[in-house]
Structure formats: structure tokens, C-alpha cells
Amino acid sequence: MSTPIPTNAGHLSVDVESSSYYFSSNAPLEIRDGKMRLIKKAESERQFDLEPGLYQVTAVLEDGREHSQLVEIKGGEQSRVKIGGAEKPLGDQGLRFKQRSLRTLAEPNFTRADTSVEAELEIPFAVDVAAPNFTRADTSVEAELEIPFAVDVAAPKLLDFEGVKLVREAPGLWFFNSHDNVDNVPAATFEISGQKSLLSLPTSPYGGGAPNTCVVRIDQSSAGEHATAWIDPERTVANAFQNMLASGQLMHAAGMADQAVELLRDKYHDPTGATLGALILHKVGRLDRLQSWMENLARDFAWIPDGKILLANLLVNRRDDLDLALQLAVEASRQRMLYTDSYSILLDLLRRWPRETDRDGLLKVIIKLASFSPFINWNSICLSRNSED
Amino acid sequence: MATLIAEQTAKPGTHVLVIGVSEYLHFYDGKQPNNKGELLDMAQLSSAARSASEFAAWMLNEYQHTDAPLSSLRVLLSPSDGETIHPDIAARLAGDCSATLSNVESELIAFRALCDLHQENVAVVYVAGHGVQLTKNGAIVLLYDCGSNQHATLLKGAIDMAGVHAGFNHPNTAQTQFWFVDACRQKSKIAKRFETLAGGFTLDEPVGAADSPAMFLAATTGTQAYARIGGVTLFNEALLWALRGGIANSPDKTLSQKWHISTLELVKSLRPKVRELADQENAEQTVDSKGIKRAALFHEYPQIPTVKLRVDLLPDNLATRSEGLVEDKQSTIVAQTSCNWPMQECLEAGLYKIKIGTPAGFPDVSDLLSLSPPDEAKEYEIMP
Predict the structure, then answer these.
(1) Distance from CA of A19 to the nearest CA of B (A)
(2) Which residue of A lies nearest to B292 if distances are taken between CA atoms?
(3) Which fold is adopted by the domain A236-386?
(4) Shortest CB distance from B251 goes to which of A37, A54, A103?
(5) ipTM over 0.95
(6) By CB distance 3.0 to 4.6 Å, which of A23, A274, B176, B191 could disulfide with A374?
(7) Chain B nearest C-alpha distance from A211 (Å)
(8) Digit-coded pLDDT (tens) for B42-93
(9) Cross-chain CB nearest to B188 (options A286, A348, A375)
(10) Residues B50 and B20: beta-carbon distance below 8 Å
(11) Which of B80, B41, B59, B27 is nearest to B240 (CA)?
């Protein structure tokens, strides 16, 4: 049943500005009325008839953040708002005042649009108050400014890497492409504050389209510096998965993953990005229906143990083919994992293995895996662990 | 008795179990130190029991859920000497309410039986104390008598939170669950000794899954970063900040007709808020979540929350000659200032219009405001 058009309605047209076709046409919108009651959720719909009043239109875009716009609807009139981009009502013109929303406790995210040029210059070493995500701004800053590489003996250093090519670097930023053939999850070792840190890298072998690059950035918190690996924004869907996960927009990420994993799967362009999509669906309990896809991912991309872990977990939850589940779990435990969550899932799975007869045999595997645990950076989406010394 | 209120079981309701452990009997600095306790190489805490009592008091006094009102509240606390327990909770505790393995086991089993009565029940568990974290989503939380010579293994006196959570994750119990685990994580040199962490108390794991078994696990390394001196743990501070209006979602036809907090707001806000608090202590603290399958209602606000609005006008010399007003959606003026900036007002959350009248030669301002808890600050810079 369609919603009746209100009498004296005004018309609202919403433009979603995004470099991704997926987001501009499919990003879900939420519309709230003057009392901020949620009155409409829309998937691809962009035209609305609304009663006169004040409204807020919100969407979560590829940077993982909520973008909102306010609009007043007047009876019989057309209004238009733009979500994303500069975020000014299209109807306003000739503004001679600047308005800024200052950060509030309720919205702790760091918004690049709010930062000055000076702040942008310092992005790689900015204090990581709100876990800034990785967006196009990060990659363009260093390219546009050509920051000279300052020699600093205390600065984080890239010591070693495997399974990837280093394609460019800037202070605090390293860009990696995958080798064409990989048999292990790529990784890089950094020395940060005198300690070695091994970081799994979410690159994928070239599968057509844009190269499946990743970027390592040094983020700083009050407790020190950390290397974190980010999927390059050119990999729009996978980068959005990671940004949404980092921002706590889990349900938006899952909604997107529901649709996008099909795309990622069919083209086999980006198996590490597809694995992140699968991990998101696992987190929200929606991976069950994709068992055959998980079987393909675990088989065709055996170098990514995370697929095996997710499949083993599915089988165990169903108490289905525990022999296969055990084989997958043990194989995965011998490989370098890509995502921190996969490590957690595997260790939890093995520690609470459902078949008593297997438990003694699993003890050595559990002990070996658990020995890494105290050294893992739990804040990192890609698996990262410090050396023990 | 660990049960603080009369249990209501006839209708679906919210059942709560709160455990807070600051005192450890057998640690080297405990009242009955022993070799096993000393092997753990941990010291007494000062804020875990207090934090747990603060959460229990919030559940007792402030929690609102139209479809699942508070129906039972079980509290087990082992405070350290001199630790302050919330008076509303202290007044209701009677008998042995210490967080021993035996008490925790019996209260968990009783709690599980209550949760199993109605699938529409809401289960809330809050546990704070020393912990050992092996994964993002699980921690072993040590109990008051951990290290007892009566226990067969070193970690017999501990709860395996991932295992207990898994024991509740099935279709025949409360389908909406909120688990808060606030653990003081051990430094790596200590954590390494625990290897597999076998032996912690756990439950059988039925097949299937609950609809929304949300768990929030906070862990920080080192006792100094765990809590404010003489205060509560950072996680507790962040959680109660959120529950007391720090975050709120607007009414929604499917979840609640009132302003409320759901799993989604908790996921989005707890991690950055705890990080912000930890940064102030030069520490790092993580908050991870699991079992977030949908938006599940945790708490409803009885009234529309108020928002502290502050509007600044620049340059200063213009501000002294400008007037401002804020109108609600019916064009009723709800805030006004005449040359007295910044404009500061507490208003109900919602959408508003702001109008600023400026002297000749400057443009007037007309803008829309979205006010969400807890505060909103705007700044307008006017150019001739």
C-alpha cells in the first residue's frame, strides 16, 4: 500500500553526492520531522512529498560518517538538498555568512570538511581522538603537497614487507600493491617507538579494474603511535566497509555488504575486500545464507585464512560436518590472518570446540594462537601485533 | 541475598545481573594471600565494585523500558576496603553478596532460569574486575576467591565471559540481551602466563542463536588506566554518560515512540567516548562489541531530552549590535537575545529555525538547527 500524498504537500528532491555510483544511487536515506521522529527510510528513493515543516535528511556515506542536511518544506513548493560534498542547501545563494557546527560530545567523529588546510597538512600525525577513517583526502594530501621526506631517526620506519610492492611513500604513509601471485596474506613490518610491529595488508592481486592498493598510516594516540592498514579509497566498496566498521556504523555496513558482496564475489576483483564484507555479515549474523559463497572464497582464495575461519564457524554453529570445520580451522591457524576479528573468531571457536574428542588435539593449536594474544593491537581492523621483546 | 527487588516473572521484563570485584582474597596484597594467588601477580582494584554498584543503581532508579520493565536485579559485589558503594544498592544488600565463584555460579543459574521464562525478556549483565583478554570478544574475569586452594585449577575462580555469553545465545531465552564486560586487562607479561585460559566458569552452549545477544567488552591495560582515582572505571563513566542523556536516538515507529538508546547508539558512542576519557589519562582503552544483529531497544527516556545550545556571533563588535531568536517548527519563539552573545539556552531536542538580525550593511542570518543531546554549538561569522 502506498503512502498517501499529504494535502498541501511540498516536494523534496535529494541529491546524494558521492564519487561512488553505489552511494549516490543506493545509500539509504533517513528523514526526520521537526521533532526528529523518524518518518521515512528510503533505499534508492530520492523524491518525497512531505507536509510543510522542518526536516532532517541523513545518509551514511563511504567515509563511514553520517551526513545530514536540514530543509524547510513549504506547501506546494519544490525543495532540494544535497547530501555529501559541501552540504549546503542548493536553494541558498549569495550567502555572506559562514556557519560552523562546533564539535559536540554527541558527535565525536572527526569530519574532514570541518578541518582547516593547516590541519589537513598534519593528518598523518594528527592526534587520533576519534579514530579518523581513511578517505580520499588522505591520499590526495600527500600527492598534492609533495611533502619533502624529513629524516627523523625517531620516526616510524618500514623495515620489511612481503607479498606486496611499495608503490609510493610519504611521511607516515606507505602505499602498497599486491604481487600478482600470492600464497600468503601480505604483511609489512614497521619499527615504531623502538618496537617491531607486524601488520597484515589488505591488498588483493590485480583482478581487473583499479589496482587493489592498501595504505599504511601511522596514527597517534595518547598511548603512542600505531601503524594501521587501510583499504585504498579507490576500492570504493571495500574502503567504505572499513570506514563504516571503524565508525561503528555496523548496520549500514551490513546493509551495504548484503548487496555488495555479490558484486565482489562474481567478479573476483577484490577477495580481501569481499572477505571484509563477509566478516561484517558474520558480525551481524547474516552470513548463514551465503555458505556456498564462503565455500568458494575458502577454496579459491586459500591464501586468505579468514574465509576458512568464517566457513568453519558456520559449520560449527550448525553442528554440520565438524570434520571439515576442524580441518579448515587448523589450516587457518597455521596461516597469517588478515583481519583481527578473524583471529578472535578462530581462537574463540577452538577454545569452545563442540566435540570433546577433538579437544586434546586442539590444545597445541590453541596454545600457539593464544601466545600472540597479549601483543595484538585490538584497535586495528587488520591484524597487527607487536614483537614480544 | 543478592536479589535486590521482588522478582516479577508473570510477564516479560528486564532481568539484571551485576557483578563487581575489587577485592581479591588470595592476591599477594589480599587478606588471605597464598601461593596460587601470588602467582597471578595482580593487585587489588579500587573501583570495580563501586562502578558495578553505580550501574546497578542506574538500573534500579532510572532504567525505563515500556515493554520490559525492571523485573529482577541481582548484585554481587566484593568492594575493597574503603570503596564507596552506591547507597541505594548498599542499603539493599543483605547477607553474603560477595562475588565468590559459588555465589556467581548459583546467581547465574538462577538468572538464566528467569531469562528463559519469556523470549520477550531483556537480559542485562554487567561484570567488572580484573580480566585477561585473549580475543576481541571475550575475557576471563577473575572473581573474589580466585586462586583459592579449594579450586582445582588456577582460573577455576574466574568467569569465561565468552563462554557464559555463548550459553545464553540460543532461541529459547531472552532474545534481547545486553552484556557489559568492564575488564582491567593484564599486561602482556602477565597475560602470557595464562596460555589457554582453561578452567574459567562457563555454561553449556545450546545450538542456535538469540535474536540480539549484544556484548560490549571494554578492556584497558594496567590498573591506573582502568579508573579515576576514587571514582569509577572509565568504561562505567562512559556508559552512564551515555545512558543519562549523552546519547539518544529520536522516536522511531519500529523501536520506540520515545527518545531512546538502542544497541546501535551504544556501538557508535561507547568506543569514542571511552577513547576520549582514556586519552585524558594518557592511556588506551578499547571497546569491542559482538552480537549486534539489529537495533535492539535498551532504554527509553521518559521525556524529550534537553539540549544545551550555544550560538556565537563573530565579529564581537557586530555581536553587540545584533539580535537573535530561535523558533520551533510552529514558529514559536523559544530563545531570544538582544545584543547579548553568545546565545545560550536549554531546548528540547528537535529542529529549529534561527534568525539573526544585524545592523545595516550586514546580511541577516536565517538558518536551520538540529539539536540532539547533549549539546550543540554553532558559530556564525558575518561578513559585510
Answers:
(1) 25
(2) A284
(3) 1.25.40
(4) A37
(5) no
(6) B191
(7) 31
(8) 899 999 999 999 999 999 999 999 999 999 999 999 999 999 999 999 999 9
(9) A375
(10) yes
(11) B59
A101 CB contacts (<8 Å, ≥6 apart)?
Answer: A114, B376, B377, B378
3-state class of B65 per DSSP? Answer: coil
Q: b/e map of B161-197 (b: 16 or more CB within 10 Å)?
A: bbbbbbbbbbeebbbbbbbbbbbbbbeeebbbebebb
* DSSP notation for B100-164: -HHHHHHHHHHHHHHHTT-TT-EEEEEEEEEEEEEETTEEEEE-TTTT-TTSSSTTTTEEEHHHH
Q: Which residue has the cell 554453529?
A: A317
Chain A residue closest in CA terms to B281: A222
| Strand duo B212-221 + B176-185: pairing | parallel
The DSSP 8-state label assigned to residue B246 in this structure reads I
CB pair distance less than 8 Å for B268 and A284 = no
Tell me whether residues B370 and A375 touch, CB distance under 8 A: no
Task: Please state which CATH number belongs to domain A10-83.
Answer: 2.60.40.1120
CA–CA min distance B279, chain A (Å): 5
Chosen from B187, B217, B289, B351 to mutate, greatest number of chain A CBs within 10 A: B351
Residues of chain A with CATH 2.60.40.1120: 10-83
Closest partner residue to B276 (CB to CB) among A108, A340, A378 is A108
Residue B81 CA to residue A193 CA, distance in Å, equals 39
Q: Cα B280 to the chain's mean position, in Å? A: 19
Q: Which of A39, A97, A383 to mutate to test the interface with B (most CBs of B within 10 A)?
A: A97
Q: Considering only CB atoms, which chain B residues are within 8 Å of A96?
A: 362-363, 382-384
3-state secondary structure of B307: strand
**Rounded distance, CA A224 to CA A128, Å?**
10
CB-closest option in A95, A222, A348 to B283: A222
Quote the minimal CA–CA distance from A60 to chain B in Å: 13
Cell numbers for B201: 566458569
In sequence order, the β-bridge partners of residue A235 are: none
Task: Give phi and psi for B86, each to the nearest 5.
Answer: -50, 130
Spans of chain A, pLDDT less than 70: 1-6, 86-132, 134, 136-153, 207-210, 222-223, 261-268, 389
For Cα atoms A45, A47, A50, give the angle at the middle one, nearest 5 degrees.
120
Exposure on the CB side of residue A21, measured as CA atoms within 13 A = 1
Which residues 289-318 of A are in CB contact (within 8 Å) with B? 317-318
Closest-CA residue to B139 (of B202, B87, B78):
B202
Which one-letter amino acid corresponds to residue A56?
Q
Domains in chain B (CATH in brackets) are 14-300 (3.40.50.1460), 306-381 (2.60.40.10)
Are residues B199 and B156 in contact, defined by beta-carbon separation less than 8 angstroms?
Answer: yes
CA B66 to chain A, closest CA, distance in angstroms equals 18
The residue ranges of DSSP E strands in B11-61, in sequence order, are 14-21
Model confidence pLDDT, tens digit, residues B250-309? 998 889 999 999 999 999 899 889 988 888 887 778 888 889 989 999 999 999 999 999
CATH 1.25.40.10 residue ranges for chain A: 236-386
Cβ contact (<8 Å) for A37 and B252?
Answer: yes
Judging contacts by C-beta atoms under 8 Å, the chain B residues touching residue A367 are 195-196
CB contacts, 8 Å: B283 with chain A: 222-223
Q: Going along B176-252, which residue ranges are E strands?
A: 176-185, 212-221
Per the CB < 8 Å rule, is A35 touching B137?
no
Give the angle A359-A363-A364 at the CA atoms, nearest 5°: 145
